[in-house]
Amino acid sequence: MHEISLVQSLLKTVIESAAANSISSVHRIRLVVGEMHGALPDALQFAFEVLSGGTVCAGAMLEVEKRPLVLRCSPCGQEFGPEGISRRCPACGGSSVVLVSGDEMCVDCYEGD
C-alpha cells in the first residue's frame, strides 16, 4: 500500500509549510495525483485520516484530483490518452512519445488559519 508513503510525504510538506506560515489548523488540502502513480483515492483518504491525527491537519478534508495519462507524439504533436497498453499515436501511428501529464503528485493548495 504505497498510499501510506504518499500521504506521509503530503503531510510533511503541508505541516512544514503551515509552520513556516504560522498556520495552526489546516481545514482543506487539495492533492493532485497522476494516473501513473496508481494511487487509490479511498486508500489515500484512509491513510490521511489515520496519519493526520495529532497534527495541524487533523480533521482536514482531503480532496484528491486524479490526472489522466496524456502523451504527445513527437513526430506530429498530437496529444492523446493511450488506450490499454498501446503507446502509439492514434493520428499518425508513431511510437515516439513524450509524457505530458499523469506522472505528477503534488499539493495543489491547502487552506487553514
Can you walk through the features of this model?
With 113 residues, the chain is of the alpha+beta class. It is 27% helix and 31% strand. It has two helices and six strands. It has helices at 3-20, 41-52, and strands at 26-34, 61-67, 70-73, 79-80, 97-101, 105-112. It has a three-stranded mixed sheet, with helices on one face. It is elongated and about 55 Å long. The two termini are 32 Å apart. The mean pLDDT is 95.
Query: How large is the share of residues in beta strands?
Result: 25-35%
Largest sheet: 3 strands, mixed
Helix content: 25-40%
For the largest sheet, list the strands in their spatial order: 2-1-6
The count of helical stretches stands at: 2
Series of H and E elements: HEHEEEEE
How far do the termini sit from each other? 32 Å
The general outline is: elongated
List how many beta strands DSSP finds: 6
